[in-house]
């Protein structure tokens, strides 16, 4: 049975009463009803958590101790995944199928990836007369969003543990309940007190204190570009390391001669995954003008398969958007795109149901690459289709936003597709149907972020480097 009324924070190995009494309600976006609450943490709560994390930090931690901590957390988390999936579906509206799949299976794969990295990682290396040491960085402040609540937490907390760091975590207020369930797994894993601490609360209070706290050594943030900029500004005050995973406006580029049918099918699925609330979603589909009409027919047919419905219904492919704010924001983007002259192919801003934050999967054709819809992240099920003349034109459009997080290219052959991919300014790109890899470096170019998550690169973000010059 889920306990969605959370009144305590996890600090120094115990569930403790926060320093102030109020709570933040959590709303089920399918019903618009309150289903639970979490403590509205304060600066004093963050300070207590950072103190505990500092006391728990041991820079000389062994590989065996790291391995043991990681293995115990992964085992305890794995047991809880069915419950966590149900909670994610309730708190942010992901179809249960998606919650049981990508929302929980990918974090498990990501977590295991860190265990593998830890096994073979060389913490010491000889470089000439120097012994170069890789040491745990210290206290990590982790601030996460709501769209993949478990994944975002796992991508920060697990590599931090593997590196030997200690953590103060602040989840998003829109989807904190699954994170509390993850922390119960951490508790069951029996890590030393203070290694992982949880402080829920407002970004403007808890998040800002974590980012500016003088005793936090690294702040690892995932969320919007606007808040990421603020976090970096605050972190600069104490010169701490900052890792930012931010927004995207990724292009799915279908070159002339590419497999149009597959590219459209996969591309529409990618754009609408998790109701379009995916930072790496391919929200712009770039199609050769010579095949534009054919592509639009295929896109229309593919989009029609994305049935909107209740998250618990097994036939649902798109649930409600995660919150009232997201609902209003996405509808605003749709209305403005129409006013900007984009051609609505399917969908629209009208509410799909009487209650719940449901928006129809929406496709716009003839989108001006420089318009708001061509440039800005919507974070909803809205696909912009943009025609191009030739490969140079496609590259100019693909690179023509402030972002560079993800994307895809479909070429007539692998060499042509890779040659194009080399010129795209983005952190990752799926080439001719290549699949997402949970241990490949993940992160952004340009305003999509700084640093990398996942696999070895994500692990190394939490390591400091020390050179000892030895006598010859
Ligand atoms: P958000 O509004 O930026 O919030 C992210 C986190 O930051 C939340 O925990 C939020 O707390 C906190 N926060 C808000 N204001 C803060 C402040 N002044 N100082 C410190 N922390 C603060 O983003 P979101 O709406 O949750 O998530 C959607 C965005 O995340 C999209 O732009 C998406 O592209 C991006 N994203 C990026 C990636 C990636 O890996 N690149 C992955 C997923 C999502 P509250 O809950 O109190 O607001």
Automatic annotation (TrEMBL):
InterPro entries: Ald_DH/histidinol_DH, Ald_DH_C, Ald_DH_CS_CYS, Ald_DH_CS_GLU, Ald_DH_N, Aldehyde_DH_dom
The EC number(s) this enzyme carries: 1.2.1.3
Entry keyword set: Oxidoreductase
Keyword Oxidoreductase attributed: yes
A molecular function (GO) term: aldehyde dehydrogenase (NAD+) activity
Residues in Aldehyde dehydrogenase domain copies: 15-467
Residues at the active site: 245
Keyword check for Oxidoreductase: yes
Source organism superkingdom: Bacteria
Substrates-to-products reaction catalysed: an aldehyde + NAD(+) + H2O = a carboxylate + NADH + 2 H(+)
Pfam families found in the cross-reference section: Aldedh
Family: Belongs to the aldehyde dehydrogenase family.
Xref: PANTHER family: ALDEHYDE DEHYDROGENASE, ALDEHYDE DEHYDROGENASE-RELATED
Name of the protein this chain belongs to: aldehyde dehydrogenase (NAD(+))
Taxonomic lineage from the root: Bacteria, Bacillati, Actinomycetota, Actinomycetes, Mycobacteriales
């Amino acid at each position: 049975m889920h306990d969605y009324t959370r009144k305590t924070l996890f600090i120094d190995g115990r569930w403790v009463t926060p320093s102030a009494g109020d709570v933040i309600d959590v709303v089920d976006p399918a019903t618009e009803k309150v289903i639970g609450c979490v403590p509205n943490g304060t600066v004093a709560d963050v300070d207590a958590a950072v103190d505990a994390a500092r006391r728990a930090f041991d820079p000389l931690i062994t590989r065996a101790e790291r391995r043991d901590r990681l293995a115990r957390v992964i085992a305890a988390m794995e047991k809880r995944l069915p419950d966590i999936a149900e909670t994610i579906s309730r708190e942010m509206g992901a179809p249960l199928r998606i919650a049981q799949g990508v929302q929980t299976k990918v974090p498990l794969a990501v977590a295991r990836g860190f265990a593998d990295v830890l096994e073979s990682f060389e913490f010491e290396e000889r470089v000439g007369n120097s012994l170069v040491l890789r040491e745990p960085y210290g206290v990590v402040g982790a601030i996460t969003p709501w769209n993949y609540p478990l994944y975002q937490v796992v991508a920060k907390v697990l590599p931090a543990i593997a590196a030997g760091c200690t953590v103060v975590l602040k989840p998003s207020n829109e989807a904190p309940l699954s994170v509390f369930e993850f922390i119960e797994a951490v508790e069951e894993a029996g890590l030393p007190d203070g290694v992982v601490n949880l402080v829920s609360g407002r970004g403007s209070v808890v998040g800002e204190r974590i980012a500016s706290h003088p005793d936090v050594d690294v702040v690892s943030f995932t969320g919007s570009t606007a808040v990421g900029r603020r976090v970096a500004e605050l972190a600069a005050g104490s010169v701490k390391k900052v890792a930012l995973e931010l927004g995207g406006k990724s292009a799915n580029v279908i070159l002339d001669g590419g497999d149009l049918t597959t590219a459209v099918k996969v591309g529409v699925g990618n754009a609408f995954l998790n109701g379009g609330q995916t930072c790496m979603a391919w929200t712009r589909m770039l199609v050769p003008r010579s095949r534009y009409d054919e592509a639009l027919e295929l896109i229309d047919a593919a989009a029609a398969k994305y049935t909107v419905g209740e998250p618990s219904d097994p036939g649902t492919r798109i649930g409600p958007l995660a919150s009232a704010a997201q609902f209003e924001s996405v509808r605003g983007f749709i209305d403005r795109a129409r006013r900007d002259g984009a051609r609505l192919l399917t969908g629209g801003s009208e509410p799909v149901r009487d209650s719940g934050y449901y928006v129809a999967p929406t496709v716009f054709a003839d989108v001006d690459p420089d318009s708001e819809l061509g440039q800005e992240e919507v974070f909803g099920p809205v696909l912009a289709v943009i025609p191009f003349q030739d490969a140079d034109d496609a590259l100019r459009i693909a690179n023509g936003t402030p972002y560079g997080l993800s994307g895809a290219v479909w070429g007539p052959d692998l060499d042509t597709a890779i040659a194009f991919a080399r010129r795209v300014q983005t952190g990752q790109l799926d080439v001719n149907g290549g699949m997402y890899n949970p241990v490949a470096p993940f992160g952004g170019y340009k305003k999509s972020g700084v640093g990398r998550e996942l696999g070895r690169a994500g692990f190394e973000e939490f390591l400091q480097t020390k050179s000892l010059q030895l006598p010859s």
